[in-house]
Amino acid sequence: MLNKTAARIARHERIRGKISGDAERPRLVVYRSFKNFYAQMVDDLKHRTVMSLSTQEKSVKAKYPYGGNVKAAQFLGEVFAKKAIEQGIKKIVFDRAGYAYHGRVKAFGESLRKSGLEF
C-alpha cells in the first residue's frame, strides 16, 4: 500500500497525463507544505515557468507571517491573480497536483476566480 505522499504523486502524474499549459493558457500548479503554500504558472510547450509566488514573499509574509493556513492561501490567490492579470494572463489550467480540492487548495482557487482568473 502506498503512503499518502506517494499516492498524491501518483494522482498528480495521472492528472499531468491529461492536462498541459501553453503560452495563452498556462498551467497553474500548486504545492502545499505544512508551513507554506506555493504556486507557479508553467508553459509546458516551452518548458518554462511563467510566474511563481509563495507565502514566503515579502508582501504576503507581512500580512500573514504563518503561511500554512487557509487565510494565507486565500490572500496569496488574490495577489497571484493580480500579478497574472498584469502580465496579460486571464485564463489558466488549474493543476491541484493530486491534492483534494478543499482547505487551502480550495481557498486559493476560489480567490483566483474572485479576482478575475478563469479556469
Beta fraction = 15-25%
Rg, nearest Å: 14 Å
Topology, number of strands:
4
- Give the strand order of the largest sheet, numbering strands 1, 2, ... along the chain: 3-2-1-4
| Unreliable stretches | none
Distance between the termini: 34 Å
Largest sheet composition: 4 strands, mixed
Helices and strands, in order, run as HEEEHHEH
Principal-axis shape: globular
Average pLDDT level: 94
Structural class: alpha+beta
* Helix proportion: 25-40%
Tally of helical runs:
4
Summarize the helices and strands and which ones pair or pack.
Elements (H helix, E strand, L loop, with lengths): L3 H13 L10 E6 L4 E7 L4 E7 L3 H6 L6 H17 L6 E3 L8 H11 L5
Parallel strand pairs: 1-4
Antiparallel strand pairs: 1-2, 2-3
Helix pairs in contact: 3-4
Structure, described:
With 119 residues, the protein is an alpha+beta fold. 39% of the residues lie in helices and 19% in strands. It has four helices and four strands; from the N terminus they run αβββααβα. It has helices at residues 4-16, 58-63, 70-86, 104-114, and strands at 27-32, 37-43, 48-54, 93-95. Strands 3-2-1-4 form a four-stranded mixed beta sheet, with helices on both faces. Strand 1 and strand 2 form a beta hairpin. Helix 3 (70-86) runs parallel beside helix 4. It is globular, with a radius of gyration of 14 Å. The mean pLDDT is 94.
